[in-house]
Retinoic acid receptor responder protein 2
Amino acid sequence: MAALLLLSLGALFFSSNAQDAYNKLPETYRKGVDLALDKVNSHAGIQHHFLFFGSVTKSDTEIGFDVRNVYHQFHLKATKCQKGTTDSTACQFRNDRPLIDCAVCYKTFRGEIEQEPKPYVHCIHRPALTEQMKEDRLNKCTSLAYSSGSSSLLASVGKNEPGM
């Protein structure tokens, strides 16, 4: 009886940790995880509900005027819940499925993801991830980032109004 109670408490603790990792992420990173989850969970071949499992690499660069470039590599893990589950608080992770490795990069303005340049989302089952794919991800995200020599508000020319 005590072993059953301990096992139940362990399962409850483990399932609550599934959302804890996501909830501990800063809002800027959660938005990128949400993009990846939408993409993965909408894939026709996916049968189970996936949740954020953990970060691998995070980068958040402020480029000025409340604009940031964000890069986040993380893992998603299958749960015992079926695809389409709306309340995932009771979903427990499965240990018989490979992790999905995702990389997202995007630009934010005042904390909101900008539509241009289009956010980049790449997710693949971890065993299939190659070094070339990792390099391609970084190159794609680097090409989306603004260089330090790009146009800015300081380079804009305004009209001089009389009396100014």
